[in-house]
Amino acid sequence: MSATQTLTHEEAQRFYDRFGTKQDSQSWYEDAAIDRLIELGQFATARHVFEFGCGTGRLAERLLRDVLPSDARYVGIDISPTMVRLAGERLQAWSDRATVQLGEGTALLRQQPSDTYDRFLTTYVLDLMSPADIRTVISEAHRVLVPGGLLCAAGITRGCCPLSKMVMTAWRILHRCSPKLVGGCRPISVADFVSPDRWQPLHDETVSSYGIASEVLVAGCRKAGELSQRVAR
Ligand SMILES: C[S@@+](CC[C@H](N)C(=O)[O-])C[C@H]1O[C@@H](n2cnc3c(N)ncnc32)[C@H](O)[C@@H]1O
Questions:
Q1: What confidence tens digit (pLDDT) does each residue in 210-232 have?
Q2: What residue's CA is closest to ligand 1, atom 5?
Q3: How far apart are CA 171 and CA 141, in angstroms?
């Protein structure tokens, strides 16, 4: 375990290899935030989506089936071979434009080309990573997005109302006892890692579902020398 009490990459991989399809049982609290993220992330006009930590491919399936334009492309990666297999099977109907790859086992995305995607999607992944890894992922998101592309993130955050403050305090205590009790995830604010000189903040909301608070963040990618924002307005 690292000093910041987050799962190491190896621990995360082992945990999610074992967790497998049980990940989908988290939808009872994740879905409200994910619905909002889909709305705010303008996926109906996306052309090329990258997902970091795609899990079983549940969100990708929903996007490809119901939201994305019929010719939009999707690339998902995950650190867990079990998740890559599950997501690959789930997305087979879209195999001409959707691929799922095994991640590098770090926070780096060296296999991904720069200036390529117009959406960088990640849900309930950054909240299990160390602050240094979160910074690396956000920096990689900036590299692989086209100017004006959107960073779209959801994850566990601090409570915003009396019930969610109580529930999220209990969550934090569980995480301190053992991160594995809560899948490695703990309340964070991704907004704290998104610097305004590289990102245009568009939305940062807290959605509470049954007392579990999730941050929904959308930020536009600013690149030096780019005056026009192709996606973010
Ligand atoms: C809590 S699950 C969320 C899965 C999915 N995004 C969802 O919302 O259902 C976290 C996922 O992140 C993956 N993950 C953790 N660390 C990762 C890393 N360094 N690179 C890629 N995926 C990672 C895990 O294997 C797992 O599938």
A1: 999 999 999 999 998 664 455 55
A2: 55
A3: 28
